[in-house]
Amino acid sequence: MSSPDAPAIASSATSGPDRHPVRFDFENTYARLPERFYARLDPAPVTAPRLVKVNVELARNLGLDPDALASAQGVEILAGNHVAEGAEPLAIAYAGHQFGHFVPQLGDGRANLLGEVMGRDGVRYDIQLKGSGPTPFSRRGDGRAALGPVLREYIVSEAMAALGVPTTRALAAVTTGQRVLRETALPGAILTRVAASHLRVGTFQYFAAQGDTEGTRRLADYAISRHYPEFAQEKQPYRALLDGVIARQARLVAQWMLLGFIHGVMNTDNTAISGETIDYGPCAFIEAYDPDKVFSSIDLYGRYAYGNQPHIAHWNLTRLAEALLPLLEQEAGDQEAALASAKEALAAFEPQFEGARMAGLRRKLGLFTDREGDARLVQDLLERMAANRADFTLTFRRLCDSVAGPERDQGVRALFADPGAHDSWAAEWRRRLEEEPVSWQTRAAMMRTANPAFIPRNHLVEAAIDAAVGRQDFQPFEDLLDVMSRPYEDRPVLERYATPARPEECVRQTFCGT
Ligand code: AMP
Ligand code: MG
């Protein structure tokens, strides 16, 4: 670690004294956990860092000065060339099931946790550099990230936050001035990621797989104190932890489904204990509705297909329950009781997921009450959308107009290959709406908070990345971030961002780019 009294790099790199010294009020707790939880090491320096973007609003919410982060000294910190005062950089150890196969040691192979800061919201946040060089967990990887995937994570994670989905955030992106070798040589970059924590299902598996029950307990206690402090008082805090993670994951995956989001790599090491969406790789949003949709080039068998996500979330949570069994056993009395406790906890996933999904779908359709037949009405629409390749996002957004009356149906009808398939469903929908004494204006207003006008459509994300990587033109990236900052607002001038890809623009596959 560089010494705290080292000269500020900004004063040597910029003219005059540094008016914006970088100050993180680091208050680190992970670094207090036993040494076997991580490897301490500094980020590896890069040759010529340059700022791409600082997330001004997020910086302020973290008590950070965005101008300081954008200063020469700030960029040196964001690039890993200078270790900020108070940081205790480390790479976290974890394991995980990747596509169903257990890998006992994964860990941060290209990431570095600088430390934790308290947000203005009273939540403790990790500040992590991703793409910051090799670590003891790098295996055969180079520890680096290419600019394209860094921009993709920046755009999509910020879009998810604006859409109201729990997610890690992007605080900043820098280029490194170095090339990373993938299929071709690509410009390197580093993302500064902010997360409520980087605890994963795989972190628990790491200790459980080694029979390290004491490690599992330390981790569980840490997770409780950080994410579920109220559970510390429960008679069975570890069972409560399991219940809590299951509840948050059920809600999270329901939100993904309601927005047409496909994570793409729902491995257990990419499943956060905090309930945040984490590790944006070959993720994508559905356009033409298709429950079997897969974008990721490496998901050959559709394990992580859109419609399989709730099933996979349950599978991942079952792995968490297994890892917690020794702790549950101490709470429940014996092995059999622990198994019963785990099963009972896991059984809550499906009803919680379905409840959150149906509540969201009711809002999407403008329904204020819960009536028999609603699930069938929804299912009927989804089936017709699938058969007619209707755009998922636009169908729901245009229903916000249709709610005024059938004379406003043109927009949504046009999305169906056979508009008649829409019409017969819409007649049912209107009968259902009539059962509630609610004005169409009130319905439309609610629906517009549940049905975004804008999602980061895959071709727009690709275009932003291509411009940045191919021509050092970051304007499309900036423009897309701006559009995605207010996804529920109609902005007619931005029609191009709201409409599906033309056939020649259509992105059929995404790549994780690691
Ligand atoms: P991911 O697919 O990004 O969730 O990563 C899975 C595992 O591979 C994690 O342990 C990562 O740290 C590691 N990994 C991914 N890319 C690299 C890389 N370029 N160098 C080293 N490790 C990597
Ligand atoms: Mg990962």
Question: What's the average pLDDT?
Answer: 95
Distance between the termini: 27 Å
What radius of gyration results from the CA coordinates? 24 Å
What is the count of structural domains?
3
Mind summarizing the main beta sheet? Answer: 6 strands, antiparallel
Record the SSE blueprint.
Elements: H1 9-13, E1 38-40, E2 50-54, H2 56-61, H3 66-70, H4 72-78, E3 90-92, E4 96-98, E5 101-103, E6 111-118, E7 124-130, E8 145-146, H5 147-163, E9 169-181, E10 185-195, H6 201-209, H7 213-227, H8 237-259, E11 261-262, E12 284-285, H9 309-332, H10 335-347, H11 349-365, H12 374-387, H13 392-402, H14 410-413, H15 419-433, H16 440-450, H17 458-471, H18 475-484, H19 495-498
Antiparallel strand pairs: 1-3, 2-9, 4-5, 6-7, 7-10, 8-10, 9-10, 11-12
Helix pairs in contact: 5-17, 5-18, 6-7, 6-9, 7-9, 8-9, 8-10, 8-11, 9-10, 11-16, 12-15, 13-16, 17-18
The structure holds adenosine monophosphate and magnesium ion.
Adenosine monophosphate (AMP) binds near residues 109, 265, 269, 270 and 279.
Description:
Helix content is 44%, strand content 12%. The chain contains 19 helices and twelve strands. The chain starts with 8 loop residues before the first helix and ends in a 16-residue tail after the last helix. Mean pLDDT is 95; it is low at 1-16. By secondary structure, the protein is an alpha+beta fold. The strands form four sheets. Strands 2, 6, 7, 8, 9 and 10 form a six-stranded antiparallel β-sheet that branches. A two-stranded antiparallel ribbon has the order 1-3. A two-stranded antiparallel ribbon has the order 4-5. It has helices spanning 9-13, 56-61, 66-70, 72-78, 147-163, 201-209, 213-227, 237-259, 309-332, 335-347, 349-365, 374-387, 392-402, 410-413, 419-433, 440-450, 458-471, 475-484, 495-498, and strands spanning 38-40, 50-54, 90-92, 96-98, 101-103, 111-118, 124-130, 145-146, 169-181, 185-195, 261-262, 284-285. It has three domains: 10-198, no CATH class; 202-356, no CATH class; 367-448, no CATH class. It binds adenosine monophosphate and magnesium ion. Adenosine monophosphate is lined by residues 106-110, 137-138, 141-144, 265, 269-270, 279, 281, 512, 514.
